Amino acid sequence: MAKILILPPEMIHSPLNLTVMQEVNPAAQGSENATQEQGYLMAYDKKEQKAKGVKGIAANGELETLEANETNKNQFIRVDRYGNFFTNFGKNFMYQYNHPTRYALYRMEEKTPVEEAKRRIEQAQLPENESLRRELSRDNRIYNNHLFNEREINWQQAERYGLTPDVLRQTGDMERLLQGRQSGIAYDISMNTELGRQKGDAKLSLFRDENGLAKFDLHFIRQAPKVGQEYRGYKLEEDVLDALNRTGNAGRLVDLVVDFRSKETKPCYLSKDPVTNEMFFLPADQARCSKKIKDYTLSQQEYADYTAGKEVPIEFKSSNGKILRTSIQMSAAERGTEFLWERSTKKLENRQGLEQKDGLPEKTQKPEKRTYARKSKITPKM
């Protein structure tokens, strides 16, 4: 049986110091042995629109939930107050958790009655209860920002490609990789193959093999797609290809084959990497479309356009108080909202709520980007 590992806060806030447990933290210890640092796990089921207690993960990857009541409380998973997704649930939870977008997870204090926790969680989902929603998001919500841990990456494999942790940190791609995303830039990869030493420009991502080990996946630059070319049962149309080349996203939903065995087709978001030309898809029913982006609330029409895959111009205040203007769009490559920045093609009309900053240029603003020195055998390619 796995034990709860309590880490000091200064370690928890650094993704490089996460300690990975082997199993889901069981509920078997029960409330009688709980400490002030422990709580129990609740989930809001967005499909059924109700809060439930979480017992564990079933063999098929679904959350095992129970009715939210005091009778079932001692069967709920116990979670550490200072923990994160890794320390509380471990790798097995992440391998098997099939529908993270269906559930929102909450850690509730042990002293909180289950019925009260259920009521608060369900009330927080109502649009008019923004203050309660913020409170739970700050104090109780559990987010899974990282799918990988830097310590579990096979750096010996990386060295064969000429990759080092320092380079990935300097380019800012370490965080993207740990989140399960592709690197933001392409790298000049050198590696030995059966055909000899080969080189090429490729983006990076991480995946897990059949044994659950984290390994690098290389996304080499390929030929640009053409009108009429087939992708998952869909022949690229001229307007979609133009949009893919302009913003990286199709600009509308397209019907794609999501399962080749069953031939199931679903409306999907479609994206193309501007560097490698690799295509990505995301079924619309798996996408999370928030009505509030930063501090900008989408109007009803803007939200309709946003969920339909269209480009939507917005403006918001940055952490230093500056007003930034850009466009957002659902991106299959980013598995969610993408800020288009210099790829924006639309401009926001004046709306009340945000004041014009003196001296702010009319064109789209993008935060200043840091540049990094090139190291080792890696040559970042934009």
What do these coordinates show?
This protein has 382 residues and is an alpha+beta fold. Among the domains are: 9-142, no CATH class; 153-220, no CATH class; 230-286, no CATH class. The chain is 19% helix and 29% strand. The strands form six sheets. Strands 1, 2, 3, 4, 5 and 6 form a six-stranded antiparallel beta sheet that branches. A four-stranded antiparallel beta sheet has the order 9-8-7-20. The radius of gyration is 23 Å and the shape is globular. The N and C termini lie far apart (47 Å). Residues 1-35 and 352-382 have low confidence and may be disordered.
Tell me the strand percentage band.
25-35%
Unreliable runs? 1-35, 352-382
What is the subunit organization of this protein?
single chain
Note the run of SSEs as H and E.
HEEEEHEHHEHHHEEEEEHEEEEEHEEEE
**What percent of the residues sit in helical stretches (DSSP H or I)?**
10-25%
Q: Structural class, from secondary structure content?
A: alpha+beta
Q: Outline, from the CA principal axes?
A: globular
How far apart lie the N and C ends? 47 Å
**DSSP helix count?**
9
Question: In this structure, how is the largest beta sheet organized?
Answer: 6 strands, antiparallel
What is the arithmetic mean of pLDDT? 76
